[in-house]
Amino acid sequence: MKYTVMIPAAGSGTRMGANMNKLFLQLDRRPILAHTLDVFERDDRCESIILAVKREERVLIQAVAKKYNITKARTFVDGGKERQQSVHACLEAYPKEDGIVLVHDAARPFVTHETIGALVDRAAQSGGAVAAVRAKDTMKVVKDGIIEETVDRSTLWSIQTPQAFRYSLLKQASDQANEAQFEATDEAMLVERIGVPVAVVESTYDNVKMTTTEDLVFGEAILKSRKKGNK
């Protein structure tokens, strides 16, 4: 089944300690953004890429897409101050009445086509699905520096992107949240809010988001490992 991916790319490099949008930082001599876009460029199921960008960075991001032959990135919209606003702008630019749409972090360049395919199939069946991995560490509730409770780890998952939905469902959830001035941390939270269950698709632990300088080290290691595996 075909899909469109929406990528909010209007963030900053605050936690990365960069003086620029972290998406322009290099991994294996290519911008992080180029790696992320290439995943979807090479996926036959992906029809198009919609990016929400800062107005002042639009030309730079378009140049990255052109340099690395990202032909599916044809729609660029002005991003908002918050992620939710950027995703809403992407939804407004979607050209169809319905279909499967993915929302993916621009700084998460290592998602696999297998995970994407599983998400698309599950969203087509149930309306919505998110990539996630099982929590590996012991989890505790802490208040004022004191442990209050040890949580059952078997019920906990770390949520990633992509997050996949039927367009009509996500648009409805986004519109209602905006009208109520409700802010969510991810798209699944918007859909949960209107009473629709969201499925989990087990992803991989290397589908990490490039957030801190340590993540860049992990990213280089992942690329090196994948290159070895392709030999």
The number of helical elements comes to 7
Q: Sheet with the most strands?
A: 7 strands, mixed
> What helical percentage do the residues reach?
25-40%
Beta-strand percentage range: 25-35%
Classified in CATH, the superfamily is Spore Coat Polysaccharide Biosynthesis Protein SpsA, Chain A
Number of strands: 11
- Spans where pLDDT lies below 50 across 5 or more residues: none
Give the count of structural domains. Answer: 1
Q: Mean pLDDT, rounded to whole units? A: 94
Q: For this entry, what is the oligomeric state of its chains?
A: single chain
Strand order of the largest sheet: 5-4-1-6-10-7-11
CATH domain topology: Spore Coat Polysaccharide Biosynthesis Protein SpsA, Chain A
Broad CATH class: Alpha Beta
Rounded to the nearest angstrom, the distance between the terminal CA atoms is 30 Å
H/E topology pattern: EEEHEHEHEHEEEEHHEH
Rg from Cα: 18 Å
Question: From the coordinates shown, what is the CATH architecture?
Answer: Alpha-Beta Complex
Query: What is the approximate shape?
Result: globular
